[in-house]
Design brief:
This protein is of the alpha/beta class. The chain has seven helices and eight strands, in the order βαβαβαββαββαβαα. It has a single domain, classed as TIM Barrel (Alpha-Beta Barrel). Helices cover 30% and strands 18% of the residues. The longest helix has 15 residues, at 178-192.
Length: 194
């Protein structure tokens, strides 16, 4: 795990094709987060992702009961608990668990319970205006830098000690350039980590 892409909260035209293209270009993990989506819309999107990539999807659980049937139906092995959803977190089965933190104190209290976690915002957010970056040094190899991951900030993320980064706004701000943008950032991040 070095680079993760999070979905847009909204559905995007031909999103399934973009997701399949991201995977074919080397994406290792895709976080599917559609907090207001119905189970039918989620099912429709997941069913259009090539079966060989579905084990790389992390499903975001907004609440304990969030779309659990999709996990079984599509063989999803990665579960992400939101900040609010962490209160219902219990490790079960052979899932890979992740969560999101926004301050280092919560990481110290709960970080070890998860296989990896997002720490955000690392830099000023692209997708959430006014969401100011904290530039917190990576507290562990489990930390994934999220927030403001532009190409020109990758070396700074590396300097802060991050081995893993996540992309959101850099990818979905212009969906028509999503795959090209991913390839560019992924290549640069891999060079920095050689």
């Amino acid at each position: 795990m070095r680079l993760i892409v999070l979905s847009s909260e909204c559905f995007i035209s031909e999103e399934n094709k973009l997701i399949n293209s991201l995977f074919s270009e080397g994406l290792e993990i895709f976080h599917l987060r559609k907090p207001r989506a119905s189970i039918e819309k989620m099912r429709d999107l997941i069913s259009q992702i090539e079966p060989k990539y579905r084990n790389r999807i992390a499903l975001h659980l907004i609440a304990a009961e969030s779309h659990h049937e999709l996990v079984k139906e599509y063989g999803i092995k990665r579960l992400h608990f939101t900040e609010d959803g962490r209160s219902s977190f219990e490790r079960e089965g052979e899932f890979i668990y992740s969560t999101s933190f926004h301050n280092i104190e919560d990481v110290k209290k709960e970080g070890n319970a998860f296989d990896y976690y997002f720490l955000s915002p690392t830099f000023d957010s692209i997708s959430k205006k006014g969401y100011k970056g904290k530039q917190i040094k990576s507290p562990s190899d489990k930390a994934v830098a999220l927030g403001g991951m532009r190409l020109e900030r990758l070396s700074k993320a590396k300097d802060l000690g991050y081995k893993n980064i996540a992309l959101l706004g850099a990818i979905w701000q212009k969906p028509e350039d999503a795959v090209e943008r991913f390839v560019e950032i992924n290549n640069q991040w891999n060079v920095l980590n050689e």
